[in-house]
Structures are given as C-alpha cells and as structure tokens.
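Thread: quick sanity check before group meeting

JM: Hey all, I'm pulling together slides for Thursday and realized we never actually wrote out the predicted structure for the chain we discussed last week. Dropping the sequence here so it's in one place. If anyone has concerns about the input, flag it before I start.
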Amino acid sequence: MTQIHRTPGRRRRLLGAAATAALLVALLPGTASGQESEPDPRIGLGSGWLDAQSAISDLELLAHRDKPAGFVNPANPGDFGFVASDLAFGGDHAFQGNYNGFNVYDVSQPANPTLVSSVVCPGGQGDVSVHGNLLFMSVEETRGRLDCGTDPAAGTRFQGVRVFDVSDVTNPVQVAAVQTCRGSHTHTLVTDPDDSANVYVYVSGTAGVRPATTMAGCNNTPAAGTDPARWRIDVIKVPVAAPEQAAVVNNPRLFADPQTGAVDGLQNTPPTTTHPSGSPWGPSPVTDACHDITAYPAIGLAAGACEGNGILIDISDPANPVRIDEVSDPNFAYWHSATISNDGKKVVFTDEWGGGTGARCRDTDQPQWGANAIFDIVDRKLKFASYYKLPVPQTLQENCVAHNGSLIPVPGRDILVQAWYQGGISLMDFTDSAHPREIAYFDRGPISPTTNVLGGFWSAYWYNGEIYGSEIARGFDVLGLRPSEHLTAAEIAAAREVQMPQFNAQHQTKVSWAPSFAVARARFDQLARTCTTTIDKRHNGPLTVSGVTCLNGATVNGPVTVRPGASLLAFDSSISGPVSAANAAAVHLYESTVRGPVSITGTRGSTAIVASEIHGPAVLTGNRTGSVEPIIADSTVRGPLACTGNAPAPINLDAANRVSGPTSGQCASLD
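JM (edit): ok, ran it. Output follows.
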C-alpha cells in the first residue's frame, strides 16, 4: 500500500531554544533528580462504569464517546452480546466492531469524533478490516444469520466472513457472506503486491466445528481422519471489483508435520499438567487453529499466534501460505496476536492467559505470564529475546492481560501502543528487544468495586497522528501523545507526518519517512539519549570527540576532531576552530556557529547541518549514510560549499542555504 506523507512546511525549529535546551538536558544520561519514585497513580483508582477515576502519563485524552444505543446493555455493561471489539480505519473514518454489528465514526477532527452510522448485525466477535470501499467482518457465534437478522431461531445460519460495501458510510450494504466450518473468530487481509485486482482473507476459526447439516463438508473427525475441519485456516479470495464472487480457495494445513504429513504437527498437549501459576490452563495451549495472524506482504512474511505456538509464515504466494518456523513457551497459555517491527526484524507475540475475562495482572502474577514475548527474526527463524508485561498490578475486579496493539511510526524506534483490557493502554518501547520498557500509559479504574465485570480496552491503535481505543464496555476513545523525556516533540511530529489511506492492524504496511525537519530532528534527539560526554560550558583547547559527545550551549575555543566511529552533536554552541570528521558515526550541528572550516567525510550514520553558521569552507565527501540523506538546510556558509561522492546526495529540505562562495558537486543547488 502506498504511504501518503503530509508535506511539512518550512520551519527552522520544532522547539524554541530554551525549550530545546531543557529537553536536551532531560535526554542526557545521568540527569535524573535522584528523588524516590512516587507510587504509580494507576494503583487504587476509583471504580465506575462511566465515571471511574483515571490515570495518564505522557498522553492526553482528546475525546470519549459512550457506546451508542443498540450496542450496550445498561443493566450489564459487560454483556457479551454487546462487546465492543476491534477497530479498522479508512480515510476519515474509524470502524468499530461489536458483537452486535459495527459503528462508523468520522474522525476527521480527532478531538471531536462523530457517529456516522450503526449497523446491527449480530454474530460476534465482529472484528473488522477495510480495503478500499469494502469492509470485512468476522462472525463465529451460532446466533449469526445470513441476513443480519436478530432472531437466532429464524433465517439461515451464518458463521464466516461478511463483506460490506461502505462506499456510502451512512448506509453500508452487505454484498457477500462466505461460510466457513468454524466461523471466523478473527481474520487477516492479505494483499498481493503483484495482483491489485484481488485481496485475500485468512480466516482464523476457533469455534467448534459446525455440523454438516448447516454446512456441507464440515466434519469434526480426529487429525488422522478424512479432511478434518480443524488444524487449518481458510483462505478466501475476493475480487475487488466483484466482491460478491468471494469464495474459499484453499485450506492450508499450517500446523502439519513436514516429515510425516500429520496435520496436527505442533503442540497437541499442554507442556505441564497445570499452568506455572498452579491454576488450570485456560485457555488450553493446544494448536488446532490460529487465533490471529498478522501479515506483512511487503516482506512476504506473516506471524501467526496459534493457540499453543507462535509461527512464522511465508506469504509470498498469498493463496498458499507456508509455515517456515515455529516456537512454543511453557509460560504461554494462549498465543493470541502478533505485531512485526517495521524493519521486519522483530515480532511481538501476546499471551491471552485467562481468555481475556480473567484478572491476570495481579501482584502475585509473574511478569512472564499473560505477557508479551519478543522475538528477533534471524534468517527467517524466531529467536526469543525477552518478555514485557504491564508494569503495575491491577485489582481482582479487573480483567487484564496482553491484547491488541500496533506500531507508532517513530523513525529509528520500535514502539507499540497496546491494549490490556482493564489494565488500560500501555506504550512499549522494544527498540532494544532484550530490554523493553513502558514509556506512556492511560488507565481507568475497575467498572465494579466488588465484581469482575468484563470491560477495558480491546484494542489500541495509532492512525494518522492519534491513538484510538475500543473500550469493551465504555465506548470509543481518542488519545494524543505528549512530549516527554521518552518521546520528544520531533519524534511525535515525525510519526504524525506518516499518513495512511487505511489501516488494519493485522495487515502491516511498510512505513518510510519523507525527509523533513521533524525526521532529522528526531534522529538528533535519539542520538542525544546516548551521549557519553556532555559539555555545556566553556572548553579551552582542542577537543577530540570519542563515543557520543554532546555540546549543549557550549563554547569550544579550539579545533574539534571527531574520531572514526564517534558522534558529535552540537546544539546552540560555538566552536572557534575547524571541525573535521573522518569515518564518524554521526555529525549533527543545530543552531550552532563554527568559526573555521567544516570537513565531514566517510560518515556511516547521519549528518545534518541545520540553522547553523560556518565561517569558512564546508566540504562533505564520501558519506555513505544508507537511506538517510545528509542535510544542509537553512544555514549560512561564509565560503565555498562542496559535496562529492555522498550516497545518498545531500538535501536542504526546501530551506535554502546562504552561501557566500561557490557551490559545487552535489551541493550545487542547495543555496
């Protein structure tokens, strides 16, 4: 899918000088106050259905909308018949699934979402996905009816995937309904980069097998029997121009033993008699279906969370997916969902211990139970890296366990926003896969002070600049990011510049960032977190840079030499002498003055000269910075500017430089 980027206007700074300096200090290692941490404000929140207390950190609640009439039981907010489920997005609209149908919100103004239409169509879970003008919805309950009828005793039974035409969002129309033997608990859209005329739907059915009297060909025979309806997924092919022709085209045996051909080739019994907590397994980690599959067509891979196993799938031929690796974990009760990092080198699997209805974030629960498991993908194999669990306990009245989330597209980092049911929303930074950490959160108190009433966030996803949450019992929420020591204004701005025409969490698209001041500054901010030496006052004499040296409001009286592999970051600083860097990792000059020549050659990381002044010639030669263009923007060079052999070539972000000498080579047009 093509990514659409908002073109940034010409800006010299993202922050004022004072604010930037303060933020840089906050980013530097060793600047913590040393005070003892206060109790987590999520502990002890007051209860209530629509009036619970809440706690929030580095986020802002922009809007909340209660569930509309017809999609809630006021006498029982946790009624399974009206559970708000998953989210999908297209254009200015959010589509919120529900066990009783779906609702459409206009989110063109995220702080003021408006309900556009509601479609009553019972059948649960009601998970939704969007492709162009088509909406797909999962149906698994026996009450589902082909015509969306509300009387489970009347009409033709339906379990499978519905297809709606939502070209008129005020009046969605069902145009197809594909029956499957186990219904559709969840589904995954899979596109073929070489075939835009069709879209594929991977159906994950976890319900009991239907009797053949309701669908021919369904049978509940054992694995050794004839064509059992378990131990497989269903693949539906949908012609985009003729969705009414949608049909099942394959039933891949993703769990088969490659040596024997046995269809039940993965985990067939729990690893131990009881869960490590000592309680019975629930759900049971026995693999005869996938709960959820996340596809990443741009890299030809998918990650399947399949009850007793996590699997890696080759989807280069979307109609014929093939398992290429599998893992298990004695701590995992139920492999539930997966998210792949943007670079395709990591995957986060979730464990829905307790099935989503149990209190599984108690202070007695271990951090590897009901948690995320992070794996590195190395040579198309899964290698375990670490666990991450919500770092604050919840009460016995709150169903809580790892659930659905998505990436926030901050360049250079892996950040997941994730729902934890009544544990709220947590943002996890897993850039270092071995050491994930929480960087922001939002949480409400329990629905009931005495009883575990089903509720909390089913899903939390980033879409075009904001976070949207589907709250099972309470409705629809919109949250915004706030700058902090964990996430700077530039990083947030860079993420917001990524605009998608549509979004489905189980269909990941590769994100690329158009060059901008925000993206360049985000890289500076990230390097600033790694400073090994900081100078914020006068330094007399030559300065040799090793490690990551940060100049913050500094005055250097002497030449600066950056050693091979080292990095120099200068903000609001003055250097009286030449700056030379050969084979450095990175060189960034922001709002700084150099009274002497600047020579940067052979850099392998990133290079940026922004809103700075150089009294002398500036030369950039042979810098090989991968996909990151060297930047010389909105700066003054009192001498010649010469650039040769850089790959990629330097750019000025449409902010011309003022050069008093000749410009040549790759920099000939940057003034």
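AS: nice. Residues 425 and 562 are 43 Å apart (CA to CA). The two ends are 35 Å apart (CA to CA).
JM: adding both to the slides.
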